[in-house]
Amino acid sequence: MPGEARAFRGKMITGMARPKSAAGPHPTTVLLRLSVFLGATAGFTLGLTLLWAVALQRAGDLPWAALVQAHGQVQIVGFVGLFVLGTAAQLLPGFLSRPLTHQQAITRGGYLIASALLLRAVAQPLDPSAARAAGLWLSALAEAGGVGLCLFSYASLVRQTIQPPDLWRYLALTGFGFLALSVALNILAVAFLAAGQSVVPEAVDAALVHLELAGFVVFLTFAVSRKILPRFLLLQTPNDGRIRLGAACYLLGVISIAVGWLLGALWPASAVGGDLRIVGAWPQLIGVLLYLDGLNLYRAPVRPSGAPNVTDPARRWIRVAFAWLAIANALTTLWATRALLGGPAPSFFEITAERHALAQGFILTLIIAYASRILPGYSAWAIQRPRIIETIVALVTAGAALRVIGEVVASWPASAGEAIAGVGGTLGVAGFLLFAAFLAKMIGHAPRATGKTPTAVSQ
Questions:
Q1: How far apart are CA 208 and CA 26, in angstroms?
Q2: What's the pTM?
Q3: What b/e string do you get for 253-265 counting C-beta neighbours within 10 Å, with b at 16 or more?
Q4: Contacts of 413 (CB under 8 A, 6+ apart)
Q5: 273-308: burial string, b at 16+ Cβ within 10 Å, e else
Q6: For residues 231 and 98, is the Cβ–Cβ distance under 8 A?
Q7: Number of H helices, E strands in the chain
Q8: Phi, psi of 217 (to 5 degrees)
Q9: Which of 196, 223, 260 shows the shortest CA–CA distance to 88?
Q10: Which of 30, 74, 136, 372 is disulfide-compatible with 382, CB 3.0–4.6 A?
Q11: Radius of gyration in angstroms for the set of CA atoms belonging to the chain, rounded to a whole number
């Protein structure tokens, strides 16, 4: 194995090492299987059902708005959140050079989060009742407890490490801080539901989703990408000053937009909240562009890879994913600028176009790319079967493009935007289900010796 590929792969699998006294599967295996289970049920599949209900004009037959909000939380906290927390159980011990000593706490936390989200998905669409209110409160508290167990376990690694503080760690702490804030805001959101409302007020829900997606998930991807991509993709030396400036701009934008939504909920007659969201859109976009410029992701690598069949496809997928992050923020900035110039505020479908560019285009593509290169068992399987992974990425990318285009034009007169978005959603779900099925089967298993094993991972 070439030196850089061997060093990178060895670093990535360090976190899967298990103390002799530990029993049961590794937390990464448990949380990732829970993640793809939620994504395949109340996540992608329910979302596709709701999308086609609109396209076929049957949304009125369902408690559509309640299901949309419950689906969003399952998708963001269940599929994406558990995936991030599960992958952290593998990566952080290697990054911090400390063993994972609270494995059972992380596993229990994962089960609590999954149970809480399923309970939310079942309870929210029900008619108001004492049982519904109790179920919703139990969901909120279980989610908070599960996240708390995971964060406590990872905080213990940070306290014990002798590694000096680095930029990636500050980015990760910012992301986990947004996760804690979103859990607290979710308790407020559930209070509205427990009081008898069928849906969380739009502004509160928008603030919650923004903290979860743009805050927690994006900052964690910033952290992991800064830590592993320069060495793995042989990038030119990153400009950490530019990355810090980009992260600061992006942080300002995230806070401004989330606070703007909350102010809109508190004082709906005031224009301050809307103005703050408009102001926050630009630093978010500028922050993304500065981060990517500082990371040197789109510049030529310093030299050809010694394992091109491992490195080159991953570089292409990751570049596509981060392009979607820029597109999502460009759409946010476009709608904000239009409103600033006296045009209409973004419609429901324009807001969902931003979110799906971020969630399906950026986050899902990046999850597939990283999983196919760093997760024990699955990564070896994926490297041996490049055509399958290329097919999955192509389905997800084409699906994201059609979905975003369809949602952007959905409010145009006589457009077929809902149907276009439905086709895009179908392609995206097909790609995800292929990914989920293979990941659930292979994660945590030792790779089988086959003639297809490439030189880069055969030693």
A1: 30
A2: 0.91
A3: bbbbbbbbbbbbb
A4: none
A5: bbbbbbbbbbbbbbbbbbbbbbbbbeeeeeeebbbe
A6: no
A7: 18, 0
A8: -70, -45
A9: 223
A10: 372
A11: 21
Q: What is the DSSP letter of 412?
A: S
Half-sphere CA count of 132, side-chain side, radius 13 A: 19
Instruction: Please list, in sequence order, all residues whose beta carbon lies within 8 angstroms of the beta carbon of residue 156, skipping any fewer than 6 positions away.
Output: 101, 102
**Residue 336 parent element (H or E):** helix 308-340
Amino acid at 302: V
Grouping H, G, I as helix, E, B as strand and the rest as coil, residue 207 is helix
Cα angle for residues 96, 102, 104 (degrees, 5° grid)? 140
Distance CA 145, CA 277 (A): 31
Identity at 187, one-letter amino acid code: I
Q: Judge contact between 89 and 27, C-beta under 8 A.
A: yes
Residue 196 main-chain phi, psi, to 5 deg: 115, -5
CA pseudo-torsion sign 180, 86, 157, 239? negative
pLDDT tens-digit profile of 372-426? 999 988 999 999 999 999 999 999 999 999 999 999 999 887 678 999 999 999 9
pLDDT per position as a tens digit, 69-86? 999 999 999 999 999 999
Residue 93 makes CB contacts below 8 A (sequence gap 6+) with 14, 15, 17, 99, 100, 157
278-287, 321-330, 405-414: segment of lowest average pLDDT: 405-414
Q: How many of the other CB atoms lie within 10 Å of CB of 2? A: 16
Q: How far apart are CA 292 and CA 326, in angstroms?
A: 9
